[in-house]
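Chapter summary example: a protein plus NAP.
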Amino acid sequence: MIQSVGYAAQNAETNLAPWNFERRDAGLLDIEIDILFCGVCHTDWHQIKNEWFSGIFPMVPGHEIVGKVSRVGAHVTKFKVGDLAGVGVMVDACRHCDDCHSGQEQFCQISPVQTYNSTGHDGLPTYGGYSTNTVINEDFAHHISEKLNLAAVAPLLCAGITTYSPLRRWKVGKGHKLAVVGLGGLGHMGVKFGLAFGADVTVLSTSEAKREDAKALGAHQFVVIKDADALAAVKGKFDFILDTVAADHDVNLYLPLLRTNGTFITVGMPSAPFQVPSFSLSNGNKTVTGSGAGGLLETQEMLDFCAKHNIVSDIELIDIKDIYPAFERMLKGEVRYRFVIDMKTLAN
Ligand code: NAP
Ligand code: ZN
């Protein structure tokens, strides 16, 4: 076993605090990674607070991981010591089911393993990236370009792929009007990818304070949803709406903004179910759909696309000791636009 230090929640009521724990030694096909940066996803909060389901504690969150390979197993071919590597939301899968075969390992039907709050194939709990190191099968780690700001690459491993994947699947691009609901970690990446794919992008936000930021990101329009006139002006305008909101909210505010045959894609995961009257869908042949992260090949494709087009997340780098002020700002919708933990602060 190898020694690791992380920030862990001992249960859903206590705050994250330093915790020493062990991870498995790198097996023949595993790599060990010294973690340099880890993004703070709203999912981390949902899970440490049991907002979705009762979790596995102690819990070390974090699934936007970048670091340097420090050890490789004897049969590893994909990485060598010193390479950069990234880890996203999953660390294992069965590799035999239909979903694994079709490159959607994140939906593995037999034995999916999430990066944390999950049970590995060895029967042990998995621990995430708010920690000094990790061990992972080489196939589930991704190559990271040397040319981008490494800290700003970390959020691509979840916020990036979660917005890239549905926009690609629905072939969102030139000639399409895309609205992104919520300018947070996922939302700002949705804006960047929507623009990179050639769509006309509008941000639908609760925060007037983000108007200038949206403009700086390149969004063509910015609508504050409390402004009834501005909202009425975009009624029936969008081919696609990408909803990235983490808090419970009423989607019926947004469905009328779709044009006929328009598609509402939710990637946000608030705990309360959506209430969608069939009327809002039948009237205009509208589609409501969802999307979860992305598969292994698609994640590497997204990382390569970002390297080619110089796309990274807009980040605020934090000391891990400041994780609670960061969570508080994230919960108030004040993150600009992803907190990333500088993991060397864990050693101080
Ligand atoms: P985040 O950074 O906190 O961003 C969420 C944004 O939603 C806020 O910045 C805010 O933007 C907006 N918002 C907040 N409260 C709202 C409300 N009551 N009504 C309308 N808008 C509101 O969160 P994130 O990390 O991007 O994650 C977003 C959600 O996606 C979370 O639920 C997370 O668990 C989920 N997620 C899903 C997947 C997946 O695979 N599908 C992957 C990762 C994360 P404005 O200020 O602009 O309104
Ligand atoms: Zn995430």
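Key point: The first helix runs from residue 42 to 48.
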